[in-house]
Inverse folding.
């Protein structure tokens, strides 16, 4: 049985009884302060918050009940135990009603005091622990993440579990699901949090420079190497190195990375001697890692070295209510940044956002909200303000290569900066609207589909051809041409 | 303040005291069963697992401590409250050592019984909830972090092993040719 010890405030006006009680409490291992009246008790509790208070009901200035009321009013979380001269039902009932946890009838012995106090302290400790643990189950925020859905709770929990160890972490998930955010969370939750966090996008680095980027180079090692340069591995010394899009790493580089993982040693390009670095590796890919291994593009031994603890980030469409939570978070953030009045989404706008599957995940949602805030202002965001969203029947880009054009930013993208080149996708599909009740797809001639789309766009924009053309992602002249062609046809659908 | 109602097993051999206790417990809204001996108590607890047990320490067949020991040995999770005639420190200390959560000195009134019982049941409920929530949390981790899938064919192979295997195979084939006396050419 655990022996909880704590801060006990004894409020007792009879001196002899107070002395006896203080001695007993001290013998039990508690820290004791004594007040002889209610006012003194409140004063002590103010700057010495007790874990438990023993309250004599008969006090010179105000009743024990009044003291309890005032303690509670000041936000005291101490366990309250009433000391009473009689064990009458009424007294006890009122004591409990005022928030006492238990009562002790005078005169009392050491055994009674000990058991009652221990139970009260344990109850308090259990409640505190329960609150803390429950909080972990329903977190709406976790480092940079916003979201409370069960799949995200699992992610938070996993990050917390894995962060303290040195084990390599492997993050998978569609593009835009927050892989770098997850890597940062792992870093910040780890003992290495005070150390550097270096993020490298292996897909954004030209293949012939990747070794130098990771392991550095010495002056003169190759054309353009005008100085010694510390690579990411050296820069991350004592901290965490995040290798994003690790599937893009060429095979010869994979060998060197494997050696680094196995021994901690590496050789900067052109260096005569190997160096060592103490680095924790987190890696990520959009692709299916196992498929890359089977295709021979990724070394199996490196895969098993990296893939020690997997964290799978769920796509936004599988995160339930989170879509709206994240959207509201971005709205508040961007409205603040851009000085807009927006406070919320209209119900219709929320319906659109919630129904859209967001193939580009959080990054796509973020861009859409930023678009809204930059181009509009008002109290609430309406559906018309939302940018056109690409038709969702395009399969999300899992394997193979990324859906973005190759941008090659010079440095690894910093966390807070706008995401790299989510360029306006080529819209060859109609502007997306919430799906109507589902009918089985009818395969019809493309020309018919095209006609319907163009007419729908013209309808939507009030026959404004340039606007319709912009929505459809084509040149206005294309529409004029089609319109002319249709007019000269015999009457159609 | 919540008023948890529960299954209370009263182990009391003095009939009058038992009647009074049963009446008090009933007014508090609890379900009560009464045993007058230790053996009876164990039998009842077997098919009617109680939430709390009020144990008189002086029983005709075996001591209240023994009842507690046997209940615990059978895996009972009931909160144990000891009913004692004396407040002696030794008795109480031993009661707590045997796993009692609290003790009530006889004679006791309704207020004492109610508060002690309520606290014991609440303690038990808090512990159960804590266990459940912690299990839920660890369930999350199990779901999100499963070991990496292995390729068909199980074991890690390395290019070197493939090469050696291929060489051995080749040697075996050549060896066969020699044994069979097969020769190339005319």
């Amino acid at each position: 049985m655990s022996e909880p010890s704590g801060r006990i405030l004894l409020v007792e006006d009879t001196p002899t009884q107070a002395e006896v009680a203080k001695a007993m409490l001290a013998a039990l291992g508690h820290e004791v302060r004594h007040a002889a009246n209610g006012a003194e008790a409140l004063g002590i509790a103010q700057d010495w918050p007790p874990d438990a208070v023993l309250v004599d009901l008969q006090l010179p200035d105000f009743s024990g009940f009044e003291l309890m009321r005032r303690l509670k009013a000041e936000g005291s979380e101490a366990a309250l135990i009433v000391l009473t001269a009689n064990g009458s039902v009424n007294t006890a009932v009122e004591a409990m009603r005022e928030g006492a946890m238990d009562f002790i009838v005078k005169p009392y012995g050491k055994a009674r005091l000990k058991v009652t106090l221990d139970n009260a302290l344990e109850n308090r400790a259990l409640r505190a622990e329960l609150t803390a643990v429950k909080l972990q189950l329903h977190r709406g925020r976790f480092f940079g993440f916003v979201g409370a859905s069960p799949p995200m709770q699992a992610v938070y929990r996993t990050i917390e579990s894995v962060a303290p160890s040195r084990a390599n972490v492997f993050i998978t998930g569609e593009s835009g699901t927050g892989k770098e955010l997850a890597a940062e969370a792992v870093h910040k939750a780890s003992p290495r949090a005070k150390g550097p966090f270096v993020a490298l996008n292996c897909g954004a680095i030209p293949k012939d420079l990747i070794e130098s980027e990771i392991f550095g180079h010495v002056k003169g090692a190759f054309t353009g190497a005008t100085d010694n340069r510390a690579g990411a591995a050296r820069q991350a010394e004592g901290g965490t190195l995040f290798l994003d899009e690790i599937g893009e790493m060429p095979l010869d580089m994979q060998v060197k990375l494997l050696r680094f993982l196995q021994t901690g040693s590496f050789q900067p390009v052109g260096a005569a001697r190997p160096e060592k670095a103490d680095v924790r590796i987190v890696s990520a890919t959009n692709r299916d890692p196992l498929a890359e291994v089977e295709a021979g593009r990724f070394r199996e031994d490196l895969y098993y070295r990296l893939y020690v603890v997997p964290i799978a980030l769920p796509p936004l469409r599988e995160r339930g209510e989170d879509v709206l939570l994240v959207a509201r978070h971005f709205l508040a953030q961007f409205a603040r940044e851009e000085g807009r009045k927006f406070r919320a989404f209209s119900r219709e706008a929320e319906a659109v956002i919630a129904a859209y599957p967001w193939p580009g995940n959080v990054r796509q949602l973020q861009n859409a909200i930023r678009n809204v805030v930059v181009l509009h202002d008002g109290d609430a965001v309406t559906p018309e303000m939302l940018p056109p969203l690409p038709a969702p029947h395009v399969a999300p880009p899992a394997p193979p290569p990324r859906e973005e054009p190759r941008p090659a930013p010079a440095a690894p993208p910093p966390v807070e900066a706008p995401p790299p080149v989510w360029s306006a996708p080529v819209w060859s599909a109609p502007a997306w609207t919430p799906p109507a009740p589902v009918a089985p797809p009818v395969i019809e001639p493309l020309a018919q589909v095209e006609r319907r789309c163009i007419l729908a766009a013209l309808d939507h924009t009030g026959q404004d051809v340039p606007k319709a053309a912009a929505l459809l992602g084509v040149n206005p002249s294309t529409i004029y041409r089609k319109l002319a062609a249709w007019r000269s046809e015999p009457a159609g659908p | 303040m919540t008023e948890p109602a529960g299954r209370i097993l009263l182990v009391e051999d003095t009939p009058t005291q038992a009647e009074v206790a049963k009446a008090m417990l009933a007014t508090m809204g609890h379900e009560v069963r009464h045993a007058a001996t230790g053996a009876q108590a164990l039998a009842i607890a077997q098919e009617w697992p109680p939430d709390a047990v009020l144990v008189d320490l002086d029983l005709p067949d075996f001591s209240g401590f023994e009842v507690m020991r046997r209940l615990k040995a059978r895996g009972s999770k009931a909160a144990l409250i000891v009913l004692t005639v004396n407040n002696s420190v030794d008795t109480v200390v031993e009661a707590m050592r045997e796993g009692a959560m609290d003790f009530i000195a006889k004679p006791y009134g309704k207020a004492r019984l109610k508060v002690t019982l309520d606290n014991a049941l609440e303690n038990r409920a808090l512990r159960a909830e804590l266990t459940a929530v912690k299990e839920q949390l660890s369930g999350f981790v199990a779901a999100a972090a499963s070991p990496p899938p292995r390729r068909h064919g199980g074991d890690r192979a390395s290019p070197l092993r493939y090469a050696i295997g291929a060489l051995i195979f080749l040697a075996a084939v050549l060896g066969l040719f020699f044994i069979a006396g097969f020769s190339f050419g005319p």
Summary: The CA atoms of residues 80 and 99 of chain B lie 7 Å apart. Strands of chain B lie at 7-11, 31-35, 52-56, 79-84, 102-105.
